[in-house]
Design brief:
Elements (H helix, E strand, L loop, with lengths): L1 H23 L3 E2 L5 E9 L4 H16 L8 E7 L4 H13 L4 E5 L1 H10 L5 E6 L18 E5 L4 H11 L5 E7 L3 H16 L3 E7 L5 H8 L5 E4 L3 H5 L1 H10 L4 E3 L2 H5 L4 E4 L2 H18 L9 E2 L4 E4 L1 H7 L5 H15 L1
Parallel strand pairs: 2-3, 2-4, 4-5, 5-6, 6-12, 7-8, 7-9, 9-10
Antiparallel strand pairs: 1-2, 11-13
Length: 336
Amino acid sequence: MKKAIALLLAGVMALSGTACSSASSTASVTPAGEKKFKIGVVQLVEHPALDAAYKGFVEELKAQGLVDGKNLKLEFENAQGEQANCQTIASKLVNDKCDLILAIATPAAQAVANATKEIPILVTAVTDPADAKLVASNDAPGGNVTGTSDLTPVEEQMKLLKQILPSARKVGLLYCSSESNSKFQIEIAKKSAAALGLETVEATVSNSNEIQQVTQSLVSKVDAIYTPTDNMIAAGMATVAMVAQQAKLPVIVGESGMVDKGGLATYGINYYDLGQLTAKQAVKILKEGAKPATMPIEYSKNYTLTLNKDAAAKTGITIPQELLDKAASQSSSASN
């Protein structure tokens, strides 16, 4: 009997040792003997820009030979716009021993960066990683975090506002008070507005339930609204557009997805391209052994003019012909 018990205990310990060994491994192997990587993804919220960044990331990984279900396991989690969810997901991805974690949007990136200092982290759709305290500097990150910035041409967006609305005098700046990326852009917007002779009126929300009320509070005070690449406002852009259009108030926005949801116009980056750029960084880290500490933050260099003719009609705005021609020319070039 004692011998049988001893053999049973030995078997249990052997199985336990095997399980621990497997859990501590950072990458498994496919049946063909190819290394299989695990990438965890936490996305702050669902809206067109962030969705496009993730799609670009996944499709570029596939183009680079990393295919989900083959030599790659993608573990995607959406935080539904809640910071507490970001923290919970970040802890889960760290405990799952991912080889790399992708964080989409600033609050998601901050949660993951606080959860691990060892696992390589790539961020995207983060306006200024250094300002968000994610890296020591954008040129030399210095830790386990690097990635891509979605810094948009805020100055050009404000000039666009003035070009479409030359008689505008006051501009409402609408954003979420808890998003550091938005605060960073708003500071640029205020300086740009002042240089164009525009007064600014700031209006902030702390949760999505406030968007309609806060937007309504602006309509009698300003000639136009500007909102940057703010995740909360982007997710609630249909509400902003509804209120603004009823008041015949144009809205200049930070990215093209917000134009699609009712914004009037933007000069913005392509978030799908940004995701592709981030995927190329992932390949360098996973396949080539590159270190985030020495990989500078990268930026999209292609800006596109996007116009919403339906929004213009609803607000009674006449878009200058030169802008219509430019948008049409860019669209034609993209299709070719």
